[in-house]
TrEMBL record:
Gene source species: Microlunatus parietis
Domain named HTH tetR-type: residues: 47-107
Coiled coil: none
Region (Disordered): 1-47
Protein name: AcrR family transcriptional regulator
DNA-binding region ranges: 70-89
Molecular function GO labels: DNA-binding transcription factor activity; transcription cis-regulatory region binding
């Protein structure tokens, strides 16, 4: 009988570090806690303007799509001037890129929370995949990240944002699995990219399906086969 894998929460903390260490700080936030009556500095006003633009743009891009949202609608919803948008972000595309960055950061945080509740590398990958496919029901993930992201930003820039936030989680799970013997040794970097490609293609399949619930379950089952193929037991059973 194989020895029972000892619960190890350290990889969960490591994956959080790996995922977040390259992530830029959330834009439009202020650490000023002096209270509501304190005089706002220029930095505070800048942060508030950025936050208003990002929140308004995220809602509009998720609901209508990039091409259907004009800058007039964004600044009206944010309650700022058009000049403020161009001053803070340059143009609508750069504002969209900042929104994609934040949506990806939020998704990565959800995946990390799901993965951190597990006690094995395969369970970590499974939990992250399930949560990722569940996020396809969120208009921000579906329209902003998966549909508009590649076409508006270009594939290379879009992929770089995705990797910056999620690739660390996959690496951490693979490193844990290989260090404990749960997974066979293999080059981690190409394997991480292969798994993130599987996850993205699975999500695109789900959002295009008429029956998303069935498509989601099919893709979860297929992803589990990929993960099972990493184990020594899979090789000996063939």
């Amino acid at each position: 009988m194989a020895p029972r894998l000892k619960k190890n929460r350290q990889p969960a903390r490591k994956l959080q570090t790996d995922c977040m260490k390259n992530s830029p700080p959330r834009q439009g936030t202020s650490t000023d806690d002096r209270g509501p009556r304190a005089r706002r500095t220029q930095a505070d006003r800048t942060a508030a303007t950025k936050r208003a633009l990002l929140d308004a743009a995220r809602t509009l891009f998720a609901d209508l799509g990039f091409s259907q949202v004009g800058t007039d609608a964004i600044v009206a919803a944010a309650g700022v001037s058009r000049g403020a948008l161009y001053h803070q972000f340059g143009d609508k595309v750069e504002l969209f890129a900042a929104v994609v960055e934040e949506v990806e950061r939020d998704i990565a945080a959800e995946l990390m929370r799901a993965a951190a509740a597990t006690d094995s590398a395969s369970a970590m990958l499974d939990a992250a995949m399930v949560r990722w496919l569940e996020s396809c029901d969120d208009p921000a993930a579906r329209r902003i990240v998966l549909l508009d992201g590649p076409s508006v930003l270009g594939w290379e820039r879009w992929r770089e944002i995705c990797k910056r936030h999620v690739l660390g989680l996959i690496r951490a799970a693979l490193e844990q699995g290989m260090s404990t013997g749960e997974f066979e040794r293999a080059p981690i970097e190409p394997l991480s990219h292969a798994l993130i490609a599987v996850a993205d293609e699975a999500a695109l399949y789900v959002i295009a399906a008429e029956d998303r619930t069935a498509a989601q379950q099919h893709m979860i089952d297929i992803a589990r086969r990929f993960v099972a193929a990493l184990t020594p037991a899979h090789r000996t059973s063939r």
